[in-house]
């Protein structure tokens, strides 16, 4: 008996899942199965109804806030399931009707046609590490916002420090401020307390990243990336937590495109027009690379901190890191002398730096 393939599209929401079925073959029918409750029990009942002898089920649904629980449950049951990138789903320009049923039908039809782009699925341990890294990023944003609010408060009342802020001397200066209105002292102390709490939260989460790193399967890759200039522990851990297994990219150009560091293009015929970077893919990883790229505006050298990070690494990785410094520092000076803006130069350096990140990551095997 021939085996048949049924493609199942799932439009997943917090409370419900709309299900559509597409029979194998280009002209197979697409029909609605119905709507089920978004619970593991309801999903298991649906699998029991759809599973038949000689039928292969292939599921798909869009990546979203509901996570990867459905994919893991379906994979554990022995079925093929992909999570697709919502931004890469083909859509008809004239289609003005959107419902859950139509979305599920469209997913099933496109999955059968092979038009969907799957995302990389992290394992539970990697997802936990990524949540920890993102919690620290949220703490950094909260600290920056609290500092901006205090600076704005002081500016409104004509208080200017005139030196580098957020040091111990700056804290003592804040304690010596005097206002005519008692309420302003209460506001000042509240801002200071908020900043101190945010600072403690950031430092606490940074310490937890260092502790959890030893049990992470991708810890060797994080340690290897720290050989690069501008790639300390937090930057390297954030990069790998957001990107996952970099070796899945067959060449560095794919990684550059995934990070959105390649120029956009609108060409037709003999006319070729290129614009700014596409900014596709993971914005957090791209921001980490651009921040690291700023360090290459200085002459190439191995600092004491970088030397300590490289001591336990193989010579091949250290040589790659030095090759990156020689090329990127020289490239930065060359582009600057050509009159390019600093932001454009840094973005170009970040694009080339991602190639060295790929080269080092491919030399290290995860645990």
TrEMBL record:
Residue ranges constituting the Transposase IS116/IS110/IS902 C-terminal domain according to the UniProt record: 223-296
A molecular-function term among this protein's GO annotations: transposase activity
Taxonomic superkingdom: Bacteria
One record GO biological process: DNA transposition
Coiled coil location: 188-215
Any matching Pfam family: DEDD_Tnp_IS110
NCBIfam families: transpos_IS110 (NF033542)
Family annotation (PANTHER family): TRANSPOSASE, TRANSPOSASE FOR INSERTION SEQUENCE ELEMENT IS1111A
Protein name: Transposase IS116/IS110/IS902 family
Organism: Sinorhizobium fredii (strain HH103)
């Amino acid at each position: 008996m021939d085996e048949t393939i049924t493609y199942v599209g799932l439009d997943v929401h917090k409370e419900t899942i709309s299900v559509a079925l597409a029979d194998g073959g280009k002209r197979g029918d697409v029909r609605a199965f119905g709507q089920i409750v978004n619970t593991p029990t309801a999903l298991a009942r649906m699998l029991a109804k759809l599973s038949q002898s000689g039928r292969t089920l292939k599921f798909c649904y869009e990546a979203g806030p509901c996570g990867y629980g459905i994919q893991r449950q379906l994979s554990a049951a022995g079925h093929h399931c992909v999570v697709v990138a919502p931004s890469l789903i083909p859509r008809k320009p004239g289609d003005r009707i959107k419902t859950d049923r139509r979305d599920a039908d469209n997913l099933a039809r496109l999955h059968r046609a092979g038009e969907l782009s799957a995302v990389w699925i992290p394992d539970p341990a990697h997802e936990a590490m990524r949540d920890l890294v993102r919690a620290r990023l949220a703490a950094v944003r909260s600290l920056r916002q609290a500092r901006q609010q205090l600076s704005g408060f002081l500016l409104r009342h004509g208080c200017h420090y005139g030196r580098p802020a957020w040091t111990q001397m700056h804290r003592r200066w804040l304690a010596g401020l005097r206002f005519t209105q008692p309420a302003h002292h209460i506001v000042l102390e509240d801002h200071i307390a908020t900043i101190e709490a945010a600072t403690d939260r950031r430092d606490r989460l940074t310490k937890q990243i260092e502790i959890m790193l030893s049990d992470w399967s991708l810890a060797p890759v994080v340690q290897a990336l720290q050989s690069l200039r501008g790639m300390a522990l937090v930057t390297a851990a954030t990069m790998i937590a957001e990107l996952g297994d970099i070796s899945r990219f067959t060449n560095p150009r794919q990684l550059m495109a995934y990070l959105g560091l390649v120029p956009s293009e609108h060409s037709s015929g003999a006319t070729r027009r290129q614009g700014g970077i596409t900014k596709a893919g993971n914005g957090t990883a791209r921001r980490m690379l651009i921040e690291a790229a700023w360090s290459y505006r200085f002459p190439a050298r191995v600092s004491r901190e970088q030397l300590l990070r490289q001591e336990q690494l193989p010579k091949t990785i250290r040589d790659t890191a030095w090759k990156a410094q020689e090329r990127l520092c020289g490239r930065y000076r060359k582009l600057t002398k050509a009159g390019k803006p600093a932001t454009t130069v840094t973005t170009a350096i970040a694009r080339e730096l991602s190639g060295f990140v790929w080269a080092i990551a491919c030399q290290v095997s995860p645990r």
